[in-house]
Structures are given as C-alpha cells and as structure tokens.
Amino acid sequence: MPRYLDRDRLALLAALVAPLAVAVVLLTFRAGLPNTSIALILVVIVVAVAANGNRLAGGLAALSAAVWFDFFFTQPYQRFAVTKSVDIQTAVLLLVVGLAVSQLAARARRLQVVAITDADYLARIHDTAELAQSAKEPDTVVDHVTAQLTTLLHLRGCRFEYGSLIGHPPRLEPDGTVVWGRKRWDVDRLGLPNREIELRTFGNGRFYGRFMLDPTPGTIPPLQARLVAVTLADQTGAAFGTVGSG
Question: Which of 37, 102, 136, 169 is the most exposed, fewest CB within 10 Å of its CB?
Fold first, then answer.
C-alpha cells in the first residue's frame, strides 16, 4: 500500500480521536481557562491533523473539535446543546477557523513547508473570521484586513480596489507565490517586488476587488505569512458574499 495512503488513513483516524483526547485533557482546566483559549488549542490540533493528512482529514478534525467543544465546554455540560449565545458563536467560529486553517495546512503540506501553528497567525485568522461573521458592512472587514495585511507583510501601505483589474501588476497567488507577467518571482531570495502587488478577493466564485500591497523594500515575508494573507483575503470575499456589496 502506498505510504501516502497509510498517512492519510492515519490522519482520518487522528481527526476523530485527537480532538476528543485533547478535549478530555483540557477538562482538568475547564474552570480556569476561557472557552476562547480552549477553542484556539483545539484549532492547533486541527492544523496538526491537516498538515499530516489532507483536506478531508482537516475538515473532519474541525467538525470533531467543534462537536467535543460543544459537549465538554458549553453549558449544559456533557450534552449536545448550547444555551449561551457567546458559546454558540465560539463553537461556530471554532468550526469556521478550523476549516480555514485546515485548508491552509493542507496547502502548506503540498508545498512541503511547516504548517501554520504560530499563535499570532492563528489569532489573525480567528479575529478576521469573527468579524466576517458579525460585520454588517463588508467595508468593515476590508478595513480590518487592510490593517492586518500591512503589519503581517510589513508593507508601506495597502489599499482596496473594488471590482477593477486595471494593468498587470505582480500578483500574490493562492499558493503564496508571486507571479509577475508569466514568470514566478523568487520572493524568498529577492523579497517582494518594489512595486504594488495585487491580492484578489473572491466570494462564492465572484470577484469583488483586490488588495493592492505596497511592499517595504528589503523585506522578505515568509511563505507562512503570505499564505495567511491569502486566507485573510478569502475571508474578506466571504464577508462580501454573506453581507453583500451594497
């Protein structure tokens, strides 16, 4: 049997077992840890499963984590029922963020890089997903992600263009690479190109606009940061798809 099939089967088993096992361990700390911290710990487990398996394993781990979070850490305990709106929101966000980072980890696995487990990266994804769920206007998410991208990629500036594709600037691709014309730019050796780079935003298959990134000369954002940037743009597109652009 091919080794990758063994690995994927083990990942599927881990997707079912690992969130439950970690949730049982965390029961000891239930009185002292806020539910948001417990949710983030479970997200790390989802990332680990996805990084060593595939998207299916990551999605199953995210679902498993959300189910056991509901069962063990929301009142009434040991029942599949949630009575507090804040716990419902946390459980939904755990599932949404878990699915998002599992996609990110699976993408990273294909590129043979370390999975995204940095707490700062996870917090950025979590905060943006939470805002995308609650924002009444997509512009709120756009402004938030603009600020996130500026600090994440150490940019001089960042702006959002609605529904326009003028010119042919370098483009940050979904796999974290940068394409300029028909050539791939070696970001890890040369840094980002010294001109604006576009990061396109889609929601439900519809193009809504693009973030225009103004790099700081000499900075080389790691691949993990660029993958997180793509995920933040995806969440912006989801906000447009949910709330609408008007």
Answer: 136
SS3 for 191-212, per residue?
A: CCCCCCEEEEEEECCEEEEEEE
Q: What is the pLDDT of residue 193?
A: 92
Whether the CB-CB separation of 39 and 66 falls below 8 Å is answered with no
Report the number of secondary-structure helices (H) and strands (E) in the chain. 8, 6
Low-confidence ranges of the chain (pLDDT < 50): 1-5, 111-114, 245-246
pLDDT for 106 = 60
Question: Pairing state of beta strands 178-180 and 197-203?
Answer: unpaired
Say what the pTM is.
0.58
Sheet holding 183-185, edge to edge: 155-162, 206-215, 197-203, 171-172, 178-180, 183-185
Nearest residue to 69 (alpha-carbon basis) of 36, 44, 101: 36
At residue 112, the pLDDT reads 45
Closest CA to 236 of 151, 127, 103: 127
- Per CATH, the number for 137-243 is 3.30.450
In the chain, domain spans: 3-117, 137-243
